[in-house]
């Protein structure tokens, strides 16, 4: 357990910022119990309030790539916790007047101008297509309501996306060429489906900025925030700090070979994706989370406007859509528990049955990492593990409920 300072984040004792030491101990104990039960191998967690880190905990015996236990500077694959970073990058470009939420996607990616909507399949198994009622917009990309899906086995359209292997393309141009051959799975704005929308946003960021996504993130977010270990690759000199990846197929075990979802790069990848692929450390991501809490400022430096951050951390889904309920991993999009730009927003905690402040913004990653920022309570929590599992423990919900009990004032 540590309260060492992070540049831009001071340190304090829990009680100095209205938190209970005993309450934080109970949170650590809940995570440790999952380790003792051999559900996860280890975890690194961080709590900060009022801009001050009050606890960083290194728990369990999770291993680095070359052996040894986790440390505070262990590098984790954060997978979809890349998505909120992509949201901030879009906000920076919005501040420059380069896009608006109402823009059709095709305004920025003309390759996608002719996409049609699949309404079913004929007797020969061919998709029945129709024109979209309106072209998908950037706002719909940012909220997973544009009509796109991820590949999978859930339905025929998802299987079509899987067949194209969109996440394994070697360039943005190849990605768009494969995508343009596919249909939209539903009329834009009519449903919520977890999707490749953030990958599409990554390509838009490259088009609008004239930089690769990796370079844009580094120049406009990671560099200014001092996130020295966050990137789409792990340089050879840092490989000894990269966490080993676990999975469950019965008992907990190490993944014996390559990363099962993304290739682990030692050099910048040819196609960095806006929906996943980043690696980071607990202290690096704490800087990013504090940027969200500070409405776009960090350590006295303005990174993105308060208006853009407010848009990112505001629910944009109508009640009619929320009433249907949608799932993505451990996230259950439901009334009170909506979606902003690239992440969940709890806009009515009582209705969502979550003991967090109104406006809490959060997301997680495929290897079990999770975070939330709670502006009402001026608090952030980050948890980093490395477990690929459909039955991973709902640590975000567990730690949120215990955190509510740890808040003294």
Rounded to the nearest angstrom, the distance between the terminal CA atoms is 23 Å
Q: Main sheet, how many strands, which sense, barrel?
A: 8 strands, mixed
Task: Estimate what percentage of residues fall within beta strands.
Answer: 15-25%
Shape: globular
What structural class should be given to the helix and strand makeup? Answer: alpha+beta
Overview in brief:
The chain is of the alpha+beta class. 29% of the residues lie in helices and 18% in strands. The chain has 13 helices and 19 strands.
Task: Give the tags.
alpha+beta, globular, single chain, 18% strand, 409 residues, eight-stranded mixed β-sheet, three-stranded mixed β-sheet
Can you walk me through this structure?
Helices cover 29% and strands 18% of the residues. It has an eight-stranded mixed β-sheet with strand order 1-3-2-18-17-16-15-14. A three-stranded mixed β-sheet has the order 8-7-19, with no helix packed on it. The chain has a two-stranded antiparallel ribbon with strand order 4-9. It has helices at residues 21-36, 83-95, 105-108, 138-142, 156-164, 172-179, 197-209, 213-225, 282-293, 306-312, 319-322, 349-352, 395-406, and strands at residues 10-11, 42-49, 52-60, 76-79, 117-121, 127-130, 246-248, 252-254, 278-280, 297-298, 301-302, 326-328, 331-333, 337-339, 344-346, 360-364, 370-374, 379-384, 387-388. The longest helix is centred in the first third of the chain and has 16 residues, at 21-36. The model has no long low-confidence stretch (mean pLDDT 94). It has 13 helices and 19 strands.
């Amino acid at each position: 357990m540590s309260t060492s300072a992070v540049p831009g984040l001071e340190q304090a004792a829990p009680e100095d910022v209205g938190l209970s030491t005993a309450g934080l101990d109970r949170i650590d104990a809940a995570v440790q119990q999952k380790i003792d039960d051999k559900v996860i191998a280890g975890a690194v967690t961080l709590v900060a309030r009022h801009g001050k880190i009050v606890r960083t905990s290194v728990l369990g015996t999770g291993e680095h790539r070359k052996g040894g236990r986790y440390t505070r500077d262990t590098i984790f694959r954060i997978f979809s916790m890349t998505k909120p970073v992509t949201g901030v990058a879009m906000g920076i470009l919005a501040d420059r007047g380069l896009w608006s939420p109402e823009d059709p996607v095709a305004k920025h990616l003309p390759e996608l101008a002719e996409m049609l909507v699949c309404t079913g399949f004929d007797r020969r198994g061919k998709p029945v297509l129709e024109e979209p009622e309106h072209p998908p917009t950037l706002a719909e990309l940012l909220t997973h309501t544009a009509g796109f899906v991820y590949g999978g086995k859930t339905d025929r359209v998802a299987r079509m996306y899987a067949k194209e292997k969109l996440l394994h393309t070697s360039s943005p141009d190849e990605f768009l060429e494969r995508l343009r051959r596919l249909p939209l799975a539903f009329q834009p704005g009519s449903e919520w489906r977890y999707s490749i929308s953030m990958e599409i946003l990554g390509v838009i960021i490259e088009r609008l900025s004239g930089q690769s996504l990796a370079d844009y993130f580094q120049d406009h977010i990671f560099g200014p925030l001092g996130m020295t270990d966050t990137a789409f690759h792990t340089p050879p000199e840092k490989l000894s700090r990269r966490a080993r990846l676990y999975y469950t197929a019965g008992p907990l075990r190490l993944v014996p070979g390559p990363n099962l979802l993304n290739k682990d790069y030692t050099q910048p990848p040819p196609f960095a994706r806006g929906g996943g692929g980043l690696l980071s450390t607990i202290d690096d991501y704490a800087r990013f989370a504090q940027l969200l809490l500070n409405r776009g400022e960090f350590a006295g430096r303005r990174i993105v406007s308060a208006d853009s951050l407010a848009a990112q951390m505001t629910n944009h889904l109508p009640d009619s859509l929320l009433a249907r309920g949608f799932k993505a991993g451990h996230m259950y999009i439901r009334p009170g528990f909506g979606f902003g730009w690239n992440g969940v927003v709890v806009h009515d905690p009582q209705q969502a049955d979550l003991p967090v402040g109104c406006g809490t913004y959060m997301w997680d990653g495929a290897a079990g990492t999770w975070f939330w920022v709670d502006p009402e309570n001026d608090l952030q929590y980050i948890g980093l593990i490395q477990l690929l599992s459909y039955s991973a423990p709902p640590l975000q919900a567990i730690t949120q409920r215990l955190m509510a009990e740890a808040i003294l004032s």
